[in-house]
Structures are given as C-alpha cells and as structure tokens.
Specification:
By secondary structure, the protein is mainly alpha-helical. The chain is built from 15 helices and four strands.
C-alpha cells in the first residue's frame, strides 16, 4: 500500500471498485455513513464504463474537480477541507489559516491568556441560548464555544505543547474509562450507581492523599461551586437523613444572620445561609445557579414593565409611597407574565 501511495503521490487513499460506485447510489454522499471518504484521495478500480463512472462522481464532486486516469484506475483528488463535509478537519483548517503567517493579524497575536475571557463569555452566551429555548441560537453559540476550544488547541500545537488530537483522545479515553458499565463489564442500572462508580474511578485515579474537592475549580460561579462540593461530600455520606434537616439548617442560619452584629459577621452568616439554600436545590434535583438566573430574568422583565408604567403615568418612584410602588409592582408582574 505504501508503494502505491508513493507512486500516486498521495498521503492517504480509499480504493473503491466501479461496481460499488455504480451500484450503491444511496450511499454516494461524502462523509461518515457514505461510500466516499472526502479526506483522502479515491481510486476507482475495475472500470468498464468510464463515462458512467465520471457521471456518477459528478453528482458528488464539484465541476472541474481534479481526477486522472492511472494504470491502477481513476484517481480522484481529495476535496479541500471547507468542501468535503468533514467538519472537524474543516474547523482545524480554518483555525490554522487564521493563525498562519499570512492569516489574521489579530488571531496571530493571541495566546492562552489573552483569549481567556472569551471562553467564559462564550460559555455564558451558550447558557443564555439554552435558557431561551431557541435551537438556532444554541447551534450558533455552540459553534462559538467550539471555536474557543479549537483556538486554544491550535495555540498549544504551535507552541509544541499538545494538539487537538491530544484533546480528543484525552476526553475519549477518560469517558471510556469512567463508563465501565457501557464499555466494560460493570453494572450500573441507575444514575445514582453511575455517579458512585464515577467517584470510585476518580478516587483510584488521583493521589491517595488528595481531597475529592481538589478538582472542583474555584473559578466556577459561587452557587454552582457550592452545589458541586456539597454533592461530592453527600456522595461520600456527609448528608442529612432527609430534607427536613436542610430546612432546619436554613431556619438556624436565618436566625444567626438576624443576630449578627458587625459587618464581617453579617457577611459570614449570609454566606452560610446561601450555602444552606443551595442544599435545597441539591435535594430537589435542580441547579441553584439556574434557579437564580431564572429569578434574575423574571425580576428584570418585571422591573422593565414597572419603568414603562412609570413613564406612561408620569410618575417617579422617589415621590411615591411604598404602598403605591407595591401596587404598581403587582401590575408590572401581571404585564410581564402576559407578555412572556
């Protein structure tokens, strides 16, 4: 095979017989699940009717696409990355071109640190698209987020650290290793059993003296961090017997907050109260971070309606009683609900 590659002057080759090409029109497309692999050159062998073969290829390859007859058959050159529908190669091609010496001046100047904020920004925009329920917006934002991954991988490749292949192989091997109930003989019939297996595997992977909290990054939003560390502790047995214990703890923290004297104590007790409230989310099976984002959106919508009512009626809150403001707030809540 290597001799054939050298003779045809191609890096990779797919060999397809004319019978396959003419006999399977349903599989004639390019890419996974189809007959032809656009990433490499294609050699069509055993040709008896060359016009029929070229006509069939014309359904897939663009007009004028280079192909030539060789002693071994018809050699079809691979498609450029942006045309052959192999999405990962196309994205790598775009990213490498942006970072190339003749690419984009801005992209060439970036490093891991300079684009750090964009990764966070794209992650939050993806969350916003998820919350909106807009599928087309979600697809767009996932693409923006994926671009950040590819850009970091390309920067690392140029610096000789790692490349996209290392990223993909790393997560693939980790997922296979941590899902023995899918890729091995382990048993896990419930989500709880899956998490228990996951924790045990991670325990075996980390140093014996390392805390289960070590891999929880402090860069997470505070509510999400609180929920993650408490979930990890709970899976180890650090847990109330029922949710009543959580409710009692919240009441205790409210009382301690009310009795707090100095500013530092108030902040400390307020933090304890928030942490205890997160436990309700954990027990009830929802994300505290999501709940707060939802409450934020609801408040913003209601307040914007309140501002509209104030403008329409020529009112200013600073001149109104608390009772009048509250009545207007109730109207704004109804208006926001009707418009959602």
């Amino acid at each position: 095979m290597q001799t054939l590659l050298e003779e045809l002057e191609v890096e990779s080759l797919q060999i397809v017989s004319a019978a396959q090409l003419l006999g399977e029109p349903a599989q004639l497309g390019l890419g996974p699940g189809y007959l032809l692999n656009p990433i490499c050159a294609v050699l069509v062998t055993d040709i008896e009717d060359e016009p029929a073969v070229t006509e069939q290829l014309a359904q897939v390859y663009p007009a004028g696409h280079p192909m030539r007859m060789t002693p071994h058959g018809l050699l079809v050159e691979p498609l450029p990355p942006l045309e052959h529908g192999s999405y990962l190669e196309a994205m790598q091609y775009v990213t490498q071109r942006l970072r190339a010496p003749n690419g984009c001046p801005w992209d060439r100047e970036q490093d891991h640190k300079s684009i750090r904020s964009y990764l966070l920004e794209e992650a939050y925009e993806t969350l916003e698209a998820l919350d909106s329920g807009d599928a087309s917006k979600l697809a767009e934002e996932l693409g923006d987020l994926l671009m950040q991954v590819l850009l970091h991988a390309e920067i690392a490749r140029q610096q000789g650290e790692f490349d996209l292949r290392d990223v993909v192989l790393g997560i693939t091997s980790k997922l296979v290793r941590r899902h023995p109930h899918v890729f091995g003989d382990a048993q896990a019939d419930t989500a709880h059993q899956v998490l228990a297996n996951w924790d045990e595997i991670k325990k075996q992977e980390r140093p014996q003296d390392q805390s289960i909290m070590a891999s929880v990054t402090p860069a997470m939003p505070a509510l999400a961090y609180a929920q993650e560390v408490s979930e990890r502790a709970a899976r180890q047995g650090f847990e109330w017997p029922d949710i009543d214990g959580v409710v009692d703890k919240i009441k205790e923290e409210i009382q301690e907050l009310a009795e707090a004297q100095d500013a530092d104590q108030v902040v400390d007790e307020f933090g304890d109260l928030l942490f205890s409230l997160v436990q309700v989310a954990r027990w009830k099976g929802f994300e505290a971070e999501d709940a707060l984002r939802q409450a934020n959106r609801k408040f913003r919508a209601r307040y914007q309606h309140l501002e509209r009512l104030l403008r329409e009626r020529g009112l200013a809150m600073k001149d109104m009683s608390i009772e009048a403001i509250d009545q207007l707030w109730e109207e704004a809540k109804v208006a926001a609900r009707l418009s959602s």
